[in-house]
Automatic annotation (TrEMBL), chain A:
GO cellular component terms listed in the entry, alphabetical order: exon-exon junction complex
Species name: Oryza brachyantha
Annotated protein name in UniProt: Protein mago nashi homolog
Domain of life assignment: Eukaryota
InterPro entries noted in UniProt: Mago_nashi, Mago_nashi_sf
Gene that encodes it: LOC102716187
One GO term (biological process): RNA splicing
From TrEMBL, chain B:
InterPro entries, alphabetized: Nucleotide-bd_a/b_plait_sf, RBD_domain_sf, RNA-bd_8, RRM_dom, RRM_RBM8
Keywords per UniProt: Cytoplasm, Nucleus, RNA-binding
Higher taxonomy: Eukaryota, Viridiplantae, Streptophyta, Embryophyta, Tracheophyta
A GO MF label: mRNA binding
GO cellular component: cytoplasm; nucleus
Listed name of the protein: RRM domain-containing protein
GO terms (BP aspect): RNA processing
Length: 158, 149
């Protein structure tokens, strides 16, 4: 990014993040989803009909520092430079969605579930998919900590 | 705005559909500014943590201000080193507040760390649209202080 906006991406400006992973099958729609809104609202939804049939829906406001940390994790991953053109299409096993608005960039990626690094290596875009694969894990880790510490509930892996 | 990606309105997203009600925290009946208490205590975010720091370094540093009830020091999945942040839980607001004052901007293993509340009672206010906050009713200062912690 050669234009003046590069520095602004860090701490201010527009920011939105949403991640979804899930599938529809024998036990209905099982999924995990979370989002950070520009005003700091963190929303979290988790549904696993296998263990219990109640959907968990939680929301809480996070501080500007927490939003800044989420931005940092995203920025350092360089996911905003990637494209999902050559990633595996969502299938019966499941789908993932990652939507991020940062500065004047908006990504809205979708792909299948990724079981392991083997799926990454054998894909048509191993470099891009690896970035996605690790970023998603780091973001989940960040959000699970927030949810776990605030509500004292353990998220169910979808 | 430059948009990239294949996702075009066929998402099964529950959040985007906006139909469902979400559960806020039980005592969220006190909206406004300032930190939000969590179920069992007060949570701080520590950022700028050196990648080769260990959980023990953080535990030792933050135990000086009170009993650290819980500590999450998450690792980067790719490298196995610290991801650069930690969450710390204290029982009381006072302990957390003292830790922020003492540790924000301090050095941990030669790197500057930043310490702040993790949760807020209300939305982030845009700096550009700050109207002076006018109290609707005259709240005695003592009660205001009680709300902060």
């Amino acid at each position: 990014m050669a234009t003046g906006g590069a520095g602004e991406d860090g701490a201010s400006g527009e920011f939105y993040l949403r991640y979804y992973v899930g599938h529809k099958g024998k036990f209905g729609h099982e999924f995990l989803e979370f989002e950070f809104r520009p005003d700091g609202k963190l929303r979290y939804a988790n549904n696993s009909n296998y263990k219990n049939d109640t959907m968990i829906r939680k929301e809480v406001f996070v501080s500007p520092s927490v939003l800044r940390e989420a931005r940092r994790i995203i920025q350092e991953s360089e996911i905003m430079k990637e494209d999902d053109n050559n990633w595996p299409e969502p299938d019966r096993v499941g789908r993932q969605e990652l939507e991020i608005v940062m500065g004047n960039e908006h990504i809205s990626f979708t792909t299948s579930k990724i079981g392991s690094l083997v799926d990454v290596q054998t894909s048509k875009d191993p470099e891009g998919l690896r970035i996605f694969y690790y970023l998603v894990q780091d973001l989940k880790c960040f959000v699970f900590s927030l949810i776990n510490l605030h509500f004292k509930i353990k998220p169910i892996q979808s | 705005m430059r948009t990239r990606g294949r996702l075009l309105g066929r998402s099964p997203s529950v959040l985007a559909s906006n139909r469902d009600r979400f559960d806020p925290l039980a005592d969220a009946g006190k909206p406004g500014h300032g930190p939000q208490r969590s179920i069992e205590g007060w949570i701080l975010l520590v950022s700028g943590v050196k990648e080769d720091a260990e959980e023990e370094d953080l535990y030792n540093a933050f135990s000086e201000f009170g009993h650290v009830k819980d500590l999450h020091f998450n690792l980067e999945r790719r490298t196995g080193y610290g991801k650069g942040y930690a969450f710390i839980e204290y029982e009381s607001c006072e302990e957390a507040e003292i830790a922020i004052r003492a540790m924000n901007g301090s050095q941990l293993l030669t790197k500057t760390i930043y310490v702040d509340w993790a949760f807020s009672r209300g939305p982030i206010q845009k700096l550009t649209s700050t109207r002076p906050l006018r109290r609707r009713s005259r709240t005695p200062p003592r009660r205001l202080a009680a709300l902060t912690c």
